[in-house]
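Cross-posted from the bioinformatics board.
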Amino acid sequence: MTHHTHHEPQSFWTKYIFSQDHKVIAIQYTITALLVGLFGLVLSWLMRLQLGFPGSFQFLNPGSYYQMLTQHGMIMIVYLLTAILLGGFGNYLIPLMIGARDMAFPFLNMLSYWVYLVSVIVLMAAFFVPGGPTGAGWTLYPPLSALPNAAPGSGWGIKLMLVSLVIFIAAATMGGLNYVTTVLQCRTKGMTLMRMPLSVWGIFIASVMALFAFPALFVGGVMLLFDNLLGTSFFIPAVTLFGQQLPREGGNPLLFQHLFWYFGHPEVYVVILPAMGIASDLISTHARKPIFGYKAMVLAMAAIAFIGFIVWAHHMFVSGMNPYFGFFFAVSTLIIAIPSAVKVYNWLLTLWRGNIRLNVPMLFGIGWISTFIIGGLTGLPLGNVVADVPLHDTYFVVGHFHLVMGVAALMAIFGGIYHWFPKVTGRMLNETLGKLHFWVTFVGAYAIFFPMFLMGILGVPRRYFDFNALQYLPPQTSALNIAITVAALTVGAAQLIFLGNLIWSALWGKRAEANPWGATTLEWQTPTTPPPHGNWGAQTPTVYRWAYDYSVPGAERDFIPQNVPTEPQVLVGAQSTVR
Amino acid sequence: MAISFILVLIVLGAIVLTASGIWWFTPLASNWNEIDGALLITLAVIGSAFVVLNIVLAYFVLRYRHREQSRAQFLPDNPKLEKILIGITALGIVILLAPGLFAYSRFISPPRDALTIEVVGEQWRWSYRYPGPDGKLGRANPKLISPKNLFGIDLTDPAAQDDILSYSELHLPVGRPVLLHIRSKDVIHSFFIPSFRVKMDAVPGMVTHYWFTPTVIGRFQAVCAELCGIGHHRMQSPVIVERLEDFQQWLAKQPTVATTVKP
């Protein structure tokens, strides 16, 4: 294997650190996000220790518990999931899958990563300042997040949190503009929009959503920062805190909630659409069958993105907003279930009459379908406004969003990492460790989160340091909490196996072929593996067909890569490269 | 193979854990069986979908797993099948949404004869104000809150003088509709009575509402359902539903604004 076509002289620094190669930036994003996620995982262990064995750990008090809860939520949603799906998968896959040499703006792309890293450093700095990080909940509702001493970390902690978010939004905007422009402008010859793999579609639509959604958080975050730093009252009416009248008046706490959820709900889809795209490609490739209803899949994602911007107030059914809004937002929320259901049916129908290879990426693909089903379905009672009244802010919600946005998204992310690791590193991930990782994570996730639905129906509120004050709980509830804690610690340990597998396999794993899965999409047709800076050698590939020519009747092999011309006599298989 | 088996086991486990009934609704103690009804219909629809879809997934994976010489069928599309599935989904949604919206329209329409009670949240307790013989709550203003006037009651309002205050317990007469006016002094709280299935945030600067009719005599609990600082998990209050005579006796023993609140 020849290793590199040097475009320019490269030192270690420009090649691996301040690189403008989308693939290096993708790896930087992914590693940073995984490390931050590992930290978020440890926080969840500590919270579960408290809930399973209340009172057994001296360092866990209500203040530190609420700080961990807040940081866990923010880290996982923003700094892990958003960063890894857009910055990691988006960066790696977009140029390779559409046949481009790089992103449209490589320098901006590099800057996006470094600005993201700054936001992570500011986020982490909050753990070392007086008072510690904010404990106002990841939703940062004022006045709790705006008033001195109302919540833990109300001094430095909340300010660093908001500054970090503002910096993150700058990074996400640089990345998002880049991804959108690249998809629209840099597709290779023959790569029409409706020939793009669904991974690219998912990342593209999510990037557009992020560009529309993040400004609302930016505005809300800056206003909240002013309320904190300058004594303004955007979100603070006349209040009395601990018996003291504060010199604030005129603001409205609900304004922040509208701004937050106008960002926050689309953000769910910013995470889930790339995951949907990745899962679609995993399922199709490893079932050796075209994705069922490609056009419907693209339209469903577009519909979800569009409707996703008019459902935000379903997070606010009991917030005190005008109760008549409930009718509109319940209907819009339940309508979004239809395109989501279409996606589930089409994944199942892709498996139907397939030739399913149960390797690790496919296992995660199946895990994705199952966890997305339960996570998505449990959103319906929460969207059905009157049913949300008893369930709102209970453990039912915790179970719902962890399964749909956490576990399901992670199933797609893990599956994607097992799937594309051979292209990224030129080596295979260890299959046995991968299966162990899958089984513990998949079964464990159900063990952790399914019982939470029952606790929610029982009426256990979320964000409780302990449940001692609740008189209506059956005594078996503490047994359930212990079981959830044990499952959570076990699932957490399995993630350490995964991280070990990543490191071990990157160094000593089995050498990978150029196209080990027999996949059709362009990233598997690069002249060298891993692809060099510039991706394609002398000439970029030409695309002749859609991304899903699996098991085409009459074809010699069960896949035809996108860059193989349509004339049957030139069918030469996977290794053909257009010169 | 194994994955199909595990999927079936997960479905069975979910059914058994739910059917065990150990962790289920607290017995309903208010008029809101419509809320329970809408929720149960929704749970039935999504529960069926969960079982069917996972079993189909398990079956497809088992039936169409890779074997020697096996090859997938090239089936890129089937618009008719997709339309049927969309139709079934839309029907399921209508079935759960329609009763939900009906129940919701009643939930937000309090009866005219409801007993009005004010709930005030603060870090980390609930207090209550009942109208006196005039049946009306006096005006309140958060700017008037002081150590001697914990509710911020506007003493210039004649309707305020006979108001009755309770600093710890919410007492309710059985069978009488109640409309709560919910306020907060500091941060956002949420007044949640699980046995009545009702919940609404207490937001500073606003008055929020919900109504219900307690139907069972007994002792219940109101808890806080919105993160409100380090005492959130301890912010609760007894809710006592009693016969009308007992309620009136209790009310007569509580302090009034005229006798206890000073400007």
